[in-house]
Specification:
Order of helices and strands: EEEEEHEHEEE
Shape: globular
Mean pLDDT: 86
Strand content: 25-35%
Number of helices: 2
Helix content: 10-25%
Distance between the termini: 60 Å
Number of strands: 9
Length: 187
């Protein structure tokens, strides 16, 4: 007898956009996280044992000294890195096993402050300080990037895109209301 059953199909990918000021984590093999970066940086973290990963997208490295440190402002990498790690720990990841990829940090406009460089330097130093292995980085330059990340497998695709596709970096004039995410454990 000939088996006419169709072979099992891979799950259909669910693309989830990660916007400025967001962090997303997942262990779902059908999820693909995607973002477009200019001077912003996206960190893709992955735990290969737990098969959990996540991505964040931050606009600026750290808040100015005048910023009220009691409020979490998700535009800053210092907060989004902690939120991403905590979300992944909640899904079973272990910090000691995390592997990182960094993307973005372009300086797209000549004559302006090198925001992209500051973002990239912050991300690298954060990973080093926290003992998280950096596996790959595509940082700097003058072109925006599109990043697609499959958090359950750690697969990443990064490619340059036309400058008109990059999101504009314009932190709000007034800080947004703090995100209620429960307790945040700072490392």
């Amino acid at each position: 007898m000939i088996d006419t059953a169709a072979p099992p199909q891979a799950p259909r990918m669910q693309r989830q956009q990660v916007l400025q000021g967001q962090a997303r984590a997942s262990a779902d093999a059908a999820v693909e996280l995607t973002t477009v970066l200019g001077s912003c940086v996206a960190t893709c973290l992955y735990d290969p044992v737990a098969r959990v990963g996540g991505m964040n997208h931050f606009l600026l490295p750290e808040p100015p000294a005048s910023h009220d440190r009691a409020q979490v402002d998700v535009h800053y990498g210092t907060y989004l890195m902690e939120i991403l790690i905590n979300d992944m720990l909640g899904l079973g990841a272990q910090k000691a096993r995390l592997r990182a990829h960094l993307y973005g940090g372009a300086n797209m406009r000549a004559g302006m402050a090198p925001i992209g460089t500051a973002n990239a330097e912050f991300a690298r130093s954060f990973l080093q300080r926290e003992g998280i292995a950096l596996m790959r980085a595509d940082l700097g330059g003058t072109l925006p990037r599109r990043v697609d990340f499959r958090p359950a497998t750690g697969q990443v695709r990064c490619r340059s895109v036309e400058p008109r596709l990059a999101p504009q970096v314009a932190p709000p004039a007034t800080p947004p209301a703090p995100r209620d995410r429960g307790d945040v454990e700072l490392f």
